[in-house]
Specification:
Blueprint: E1 3-5, E2 12-17, E3 20-25, E4 31-43, E5 46-62, E6 75-89, E7 92-96, E8 102-108, E9 114-118, E10 125-126, E11 130-132, E12 141-150, E13 159-175, E14 178-191, E15 206-220, E16 226-239, E17 244-256, H1 263-273, E18 275-276, H2 316-320, H3 322-325, E19 338-343, E20 346-351, H4 368-378, E21 386-391, H5 398-417, E22 426-430, H6 443-449, E23 451-457
Parallel strand pairs: 18-19, 21-22
Antiparallel strand pairs: 1-11, 2-3, 4-5, 4-17, 5-6, 6-7, 6-8, 8-9, 10-12, 12-13, 13-14, 14-15, 15-16, 16-17, 19-20, 20-23, 21-23
Helix pairs in contact: 1-4, 4-5
């Protein structure tokens, strides 16, 4: 039986023919993936607490990051994952890891196989659920291979465990007023019993893992989209020092899709505080520029254009230094020294020459006006997530610049949350001085490189 593997959260196309159904892969959309776990921890047989964790992500369609040739059917995705975790014990709680983005890059090929390119442990379920290419009727079963990434001791070291899942098609029903299909899935955890199934990049102190899973999967009848997975877990992990960790509880996964935003309203507001980036992007046709009055041109998607319609091939110099070349449209003469543009992830506002105290993440009072204006724009997208990326000039040690850029991104998020935007809306990342938009050899260039970029994710 030929298998078609997919990652949970992508679109699946289903064909319904009376009592039979065929499900096949067709992923072409950005989406949010949410994973919630409620697990009771037992260490060497003794109860040690309840961990409630929620992992949220925004996963966008992207380009091949390596620049190498790949089949046109391959779809590339990059995501930002962040973890909210609360461990409860003796009526006390601790909170950690809020809104610090964990990057992930992967591709999905035509046969539905997921290949991780940048793997930091998320998503934790890979190629799950998987599907047969044959027609299905109620009671039919099939097997599919997948993978889970686990970190039972919260070390920050993930181990990838292969899984072989038995699926059973349970038929059609109504879920929240919608026609859906239900699928049952069961599998056993078996890790460390041979060298073949060990993860060479995983936690080398994890020697064995055993246990079982039973999951319910709900799939939309109209599109085949998996909208909910509820997994009942009972697993035991054995470590080299003799410690045994048993986890019992539930893991729930579901997808959320970005709500439509009013592009014309956002572009009108952005045009009031910033300049539209009209720099031609190398090798890619650009959309029509929105006028200074905010009258954009909407296509079928309802999105207003941002960039120039001119498609100018990059010169050799442009190809080798695209970031520096793109800075030609950026100067202190730009409106508020801010630039906005349309990206695959959403509308992005670049705030240049952001003023912090020297070698600090503390924002100077002179930035109050710009932050006030930015907050008012973001409030026009109340249901969106916002990605804040910090950048520094490259003048010191890369490790120090990286840490400083992360701290500055988080501090900008804090300042914006003080202006009426929920802190949970922000995902923060830092890049240090690795992505310059101007030469670091001049004062003006370094000022432009000290920036934050805020993307309204969609």
């Amino acid at each position: 039986m030929k298998k078609l593997a997919v990652i949970f959260g992508f679109f699946l196309f289903s064909e319904v023919s009376f009592s039979q159904t065929r499900i096949a892969y067709s992923g072409d959309s950005s989406y949010k993936l949410v994973e919630r776990t409620n697990l009771r921890h037992y260490v060497n047989g003794k109860y040690s607490g309840l961990t409630s964790r929620e992992v949220r992500s925004f996963i966008s369609l992207g380009d091949n990051p390596s620049g190498t040739r790949s089949p046109k059917s391959d779809r590339w995705y990059d995501g930002n994952f962040y973890v909210l975790e609360e461990t409860l014990r003796n009526s006390k709680s601790t909170l950690a890891g809020i809104n610090e983005a964990i990057p992930s890059v992967f591709k999905i090929s035509a046969d539905g196989k997921m290949t991780m390119i940048e793997d930091n442990g998320y998503p934790t379920f890979r190629s799950f659920p998987s599907y047969t290419t044959g027609q299905l009727k109620k009671g039919d079963s099939w097997k599919g291979e997948g993978e889970r990434a686990v970190d039972p001791m919260n070390k920050g070291v993930f181990t990838r465990i292969p899984i072989l899942v038995l699926y059973t098609f349970e038929g059609a029903e109504i879920y929240k007023g919608e026609n859906v299909f239900r699928i049952k899935a069961i599998w056993q955890t078996n890790y460390g019993f041979s060298n073949f199934d060990r993860d060479p990049k995983g936690d080398d102190t994890l020697k064995k893992a055993t246990g079982g899973h039973k999951a319910d999967i709900i799939v939309r009848a109209s599109t085949g989209e998996a909208i909910l997975i509820s997994d009942n877990v009972d697993e035991t992990f054995a470590y080299a020092d003799g410690t045994q960790v048993n986890l019992k509880g539930t893991i729930t996964l579901f997808t959320e899709y970005p709500p439509a935003i009013d592009h014309d309203k956002l572009i009108f507001a952005l045009n009031r505080i910033a300049k539209a980036d009209t720099t031609p992007k190398a090798g890619k046709p650009q959309k029509e520029t929105a006028s200074s009055t905010g009258a954009g041109t909407s296509g079928k998607s309802g999105k207003s254009g941002i960039a120039s319609t001119v498609n100018t091939p990059a010169s050799p110099a442009d190809s080798s230094t695209p970031a520096v070349a793109s800075a030609k449209s950026s100067s202190s003469a730009d409106k508020n020294n801010m630039i906005f543009e349309e990206t695959p992830k959403g509308l992005r506002l670049s705030v240049r020459d952001i003023k912090f105290k020297a070698d600090s993440s503390e924002v100077l009072l002179s930035e109050k006006s710009r932050l006030d204006e930015i907050a008012e724009v973001l409030k026009l997208a109340p249901d969106s997530q916002f990605l804040i990326e910090g950048h520094t000039a490259s003048v010191g040690k890369p490790s120090g610049e990286q840490k400083l850029s992360e701290e500055r991104a988080k501090n900008i998020a804090t300042e914006l949350s003080k202006r009426g935007i929920s802190a949970e809306k922000f995902i923060c990342k830092g890049y240090g001085g690795t992505k310059p938009v101007a030469p670091n050899s001049t004062d003006e260039g370094r000022a432009q490189n000290r920036r934050v970029e805020i993307t309204i994710l969609e």
